[in-house]
Every structure is written in C-alpha cells, then in structure tokens.
User: Fold these one by one.
Assistant:
Number 1:
Amino acid sequence: MGVSSYAFIRRFVKSHNSALVGSMLYCFSGYAVASLEFIAFYSSIAVFPLLLLALEKRFTDERYRFVMIPAAACNLLASSYLFIGSSIAMLIYALARFFAAPEWKKNRRFGMIMLCLCEYMIGVLICGVTISNFINTMLSTSRATVTLSTGAAASGGLSSLILPKHFFDVL
C-alpha cells in the first residue's frame, strides 16, 4: 500500500520526502487503520492509487497505452466486493482532472475517454471469471433474499436482486 501511494503522490510533488510523508499519511489514515480487520477493504485501498496512476499516465503520456487494462484487472482481483465503489471514485477523479487539469489539455477529447473506457472494460473482462464466480456465490448463499435458480428473481424484477426483500419495512 505504501509503494502504490508513494508512486501516485510522487507524480505530483517535487521532493522525495514529501511523497514519503504523503504515503505514510495515506497508509495510516483512519480508514486504512480501521479496515485492517477486513482484508477486502485493505487490499482495495492498496490498489486504488495504482488505478489513479494508470489513469494519469494514460492521459498525459502516449507511451502508456493499454496501462488501464492491468490496473482494472488488479483492482478487480484485489476486491471484487469494492470494485464498483473504487470505479466510481476513479470516475469522479477522472472527471475532475479532465475538466480542471492543464496536463490533460492535449488529450481532452471524447476519443481518449472512449479509449480509456475500452481499456478498463477489457481489464474487467480479463477478470470476468473471478467476478462471475463472486456473483454466483453471493446469489446462491442461504442469506440471499432471492436466488436465480428458483426463478424468484424474475417475479421481483431487477430491484429484488439489488435490494433485500424487506428493505423498506424498517422505515
């Protein structure tokens, strides 16, 4: 986690010591320390700076084509449970940098966005076996509210796959 955050922070600061301090602050932040109990959270925050670094390299340097593919694959392998959350956070970061960063000015075009999305999707497809196994396991547990094998999902629609059966009963 320290190496990935150091690599990302080093891109934006001049001093080696500043990057080291920033990396230590990221490694020992409240969220990182609190998530030591659950390895899925910890591995996800360890890989997240690499995902952002790959995005930065892709938009600023033409030599780093296809760098989003292994970054997306590593992100999915690190934690398929938090993959969507980290993808949304990366999308928010990308939109903010796309419209505000002067370094991204030369690649501020729709085609570059589509290339990055395609590379990201290829990385997801590479790890498709992992994610399909995860979804199958989550939907076939005894704690799941619906199962695909009984056909209950067809009667409840898409919302029955996303929200628990008695979600609004608590309110």
Number 2:
Amino acid sequence: MRRLGPARRARPDRALSTARAAIDLRRKLAELDRDAHLPELAALLSKYATMLAEDGWKADALTVSEEAVTLCRELAARDPDPHLPGLAMSVGNHALRLAESDQRSRAPIAANEAVTLCREARGWSAVVLQAGPDGRPAAHRVAADRDNGPLLLVGDADLIVHDRALLAFGE
C-alpha cells in the first residue's frame, strides 16, 4: 500500500479498491499462516481506515479501524515489545475515527489508552493528531517528554490528552 500515494490522488476509487484487494489477499494469507501475516494485515487495515476517512467514508473507516485495533491487541498480547508501538498508533488513529463519528464521546477513552500505550512502548514517540492546513486531521509523531509524558491531540484539537489529564474544549 505504500505505493498508492500518487494513484490515490489521481483516482481515489481505484486506490481504495486496490487497497481492499491487498487486504483481502493478506487476510487469506493470514488464514494460512497467522503469525507470519497478521502484522501486515493489521497495518494494512489501519492505513485503509485512514484512506476511507480521508475520502469521506467515516462509518466504514470506523469499522475498519476497530478491526485493526483488535488485531493489534492480539499481536501485542502475544509479543508486546515489537507490537506495542503499532497498537499505540492504531488506538490513536481509532480515537481520531471516533472523534470524527457519531461516537465522539468515546474518543477521549481511546486517546487516553493511546497515551498509556505510548508510555508502555519504552522509548517510542507519542502520537499527535492535529488539524492540517486543509482542516482535516493529520497524524504526527513527536518525541515523548519523559518528565511530562506524551501529548495526544485528537481531531481538530478539541480533545487534548496530556499525561493522564483530559482537557475538552470547543463547540
């Protein structure tokens, strides 16, 4: 899916169908050898959820994001060290999907979990989701501040998680 960038801008429907085909193939491979193919399936689903959200398919993006989080949880439960960063990013992205949906009230819970997971993933950077110049949320990684803890901004920065404190403002 890394090669879909230019094609996606030119033909979003084709990029989405190509991504869906890659997910279907990886899903079949995971049925044959779950250990070998589950990490890539989880990553593809997370990226696909972001693509769907960016193209306006918010409800579908939320469903796909939930599946990605479930798979990342399975991976992290089996082998935390290599998979906690992926789980943290997946839960952070899911918080963004929730913030964009009619389930907005669940976003702070997921955001808090993402911050906690960042802490657990020793030495990993925090997840920051902010509104980009076009008003759409954009994900960024920033170095975790060991003294103050990571910072997570969700959606258009109206939900902020710093350490374990949640600040909500806006609307």
Number 3:
Amino acid sequence: MKHTYGFTLLELLIVLTVISIITTAALSNLLKSSRTNALKSDARDLENIFAISRMEAIKRNCSVTILFNKNDQDCLTFIDSNHSCEFDPPQETVLLRYNLSSAFFDSSKSDGDGLSFIENDNGYPSLRWDNRGLPHRNGNGFGAGTAYLCNEESHYCIIVSKTGLIRIKPY
C-alpha cells in the first residue's frame, strides 16, 4: 500500500475560504474602528478649540469669538474687539482656523445645520467668550449650545454650558 502525503485540492479550498471570510470580517471591523476614531479626534479637536478660545479670552482680557461655517465644515477663532460675533478683518486678529477632517456637522440636528449656537447678523452660528471665560451669544444672554458631529459610523456632540463647561458625549 502506497502512502500519499499532503492535502487534497478540496481541503486547500476550504481552508482558503475560511481564511478569506475571517480576513474580510476583521478588515471591516478595522475600517469601522478607524472611522470612529477619526470622528472622536475631530470632536476632541473642536473641544480643544473651545477651551483654547476660552483661555485666550481670559488671558488677553478681551472677547474671543468662534465663528462656524456650516457649508465649509470649519470654524474661525478670532479676537472680537467690538463684541459683534462677526469677523472684521482689518481690526480683528485671527487666532485659529480649523477644518473638520473626517466628520461633518450633523444636518439632522438643530434646524439642519448641526449647531445650536445662535447665528450672528450674517447668518453664521457663533460663540463668544467674554474676558471672564463665560460664553455669550450674538446680542445679549449666555451662549450655551452644542455642536453635533457625525460620520458614517458614529455621532458625538460637544456641549458648552452657560457656565462655560465644555464636554463631549456620544448621542
């Protein structure tokens, strides 16, 4: 009787099929995790912009405004010398400009723009920090609000309270 060593073609095909199924499942989970982490990164960056703007307002003893452009998915932080929540280039200094890299403002929230901050006279949502680090809106009153961020995988919001507390949470 002759012994043959090795695998049959059918056995090899079954093993390759199992390996390809496991690899496909692992890659899809890896891609989902990567997109979720990118969204978390954008949320943390936006939270840091809020905190830096607040600290700059206190440090410089002036108003600092964050102006959101929902169409371009970005925000502009500047020293707001006239407290108007509007950027006037000749006399106001830009501190920071930030574009969302992998997330976008969730259009299903806050009247379709993903931002619950009050709009300035030009129609852009804005948040102004006073020299004591308290948030204000265009006109009078405190500027509490929320920025809703999302991508294909997940949703996060950055919340600013009336006392200036900034936090991130999934929704």
